[in-house]
Design brief:
- This protein is an alpha/beta fold.
- The protein has one domain: L-arginine/glycine Amidinotransferase, Chain A (5-stranded Propeller).
- It is 25% helix and 25% strand.
- It is built from 11 helices and 18 strands.
- The strands form 6 sheets. A 4-stranded mixed sheet has the order 3-2-1-18.
- β11, α8 and β12 form a beta-alpha-beta unit.
- It is globular, with a radius of gyration of 19 Å.
- It binds 6-aminohexanamide.
- The site of 6-aminohexanamide has 14 residues, from α3.
């Protein structure tokens, strides 16, 4: 699995529309997704998967020469988790892993039902691209639950991958074996938890990511009263003692956590109620994180929250990615739906000899 900073041929997205996840008929979310797509399209091509019913609307809102639209049925719009994880071989051939998807936990804490259209997204994307596919039938995983350095190391969380609502029939060692086999990695670094209240059961992409081999960026708080405090401390302990696949210790950079951010009563009232869908309430702290950004060809597309920490987050990203142009895009609306920019995007590596 190439690292995210390696050259892309394009980025994939899917169009939001389900009213029990996105408020006000998903119109504010569609504006937010469009802004993300346009920001990425300044750096590389974007393909957006759109239902037949939303085709005209999406076409009109995504009027950018670098944005392609393909018609596709989905259950929601989190292509990081429903799309393929692209891999490449030494000759530069790009293929995709098609993980089984169960909506972040199936009938044990999953976020909606049915989810079979989302489970078909990876296959459809790979067929459109003419890429060979490795299906992991019965092995559940979402792309947002892993990050790699492209040199044999993978970071994940126990909270998610060892959760009994994903692969209860497999041990940690057996899960590692599947990851090694499909992603050609040698070392797995297990953080105990992800961010507090992350409805994905602690996806690592909302908490900690690689910025280059040997260096990670970790969401951080020094406030001992913040429920994220013990999570950050525990992750730091693991990262400080870890060695990557090349035997290197890790440099850990810290990224402040915005907020605490809560949805307003008005925002919650705009979300349809449906059996099995996530309840929305202003009392629930949202899992806002600046770590949930996407690396594109020459750019960083990161969320801003109109929070006092936005400027510091931007400065940190500029310092860590001096060769990239950092673009902050409004992230609140995407956060209201349960994730952020990394969760709604999936990079496709360029075919190049490695
Ligand atoms: O953050 C993600 N990777 C997905 C979040 C799904 C939220 C559904 N409400």
């Amino acid at each position: 699995m190439p690292a995210e900073w390696e050259p892309h041929s394009q980025t994939w997205m899917a169009w939001p529309e389900r009213p029990d996840n996105w408020r006000n008929g998903a119109k504010p979310a569609q504006a937010a997704f469009s802004a993300v797509a346009r920001a990425i399209a300044e750096f590389e091509p974007v393909t957006v998967c759109v239902s037949a019913g939303q085709y005209d609307n999406a076409r009109a809102r995504l009027n950018h020469g670098n944005i392609r639209i393909v018609e596709m049925s989905t259950d929601d719009a989190w292509v990081r988790d429903t799309g393929p994880t692209f891999v490449s071989n030494a000759a530069g051939e790009v293929r995709g892993v098609d993980w089984t998807f169960n909506a972040w936990g199936g009938f044990d804490g999953g976020l909606y039902w049915p989810w079979q259209r989302d489970d078909q997204v990876a296959r459809k994307v790979l067929e459109i691209e003419g890429c060979q596919r490795y299906r992991t039938e019965g092995f559940v995983l979402e792309g947002g639950s892993i990050h790699v350095d492209g040199e044999g190391t993978l970071i994940t969380t126990e909270e998610c991958l060892l959760n009994l609502n994903r692969n209860p029939h497999l041990s940690r060692e057996q899960i590692e074996a599947v990851l090694r086999e499909h992603l050609a990695i040698d070392t797995v670094i297990w953080l105990p938890d992800g961010l507090f209240n992350d409805e994905t059961d602690g996806h690592v992409d909302n908490f900690c990511c690689y910025v280059r081999p040997g260096e990670v960026l970790l969401a951080w708080t020094d406030d001992a009263g913040d429920p994220n405090y013990p999570r950050c401390q525990a992750a730091m302990r693991v990262l400080e003692s870890a060695r990557d696949a090349k035997g290197r210790p890790l440099v850990v950079h810290k990224m402040p956590i915005p907020g605490p951010i809560h949805a307003t009563a008005e925002e919650c009232a705009g979300v349809d109620t449906a059996e099995g869908s996530q309840p929305r309430d202003p009392s629930i702290r949202l899992a806002g994180s600046y770590v949930n950004f996407l690396i594109v060809n020459g750019g960083i597309i990161a969320p801003r929250f109109d929070d006092p920490k936005d400027a510091e987050a931007e400065a940190i990203l500029k310092r860590l990615f001096p060769g990239h142009r950092v673009v902050l895009v409004p992230g609140r609306e995407i956060l209201l739906g349960g994730g952020n920019i990394h969760c709604i995007t999936q990079q496709q590596p360029a075919a190049q000899q490695r």
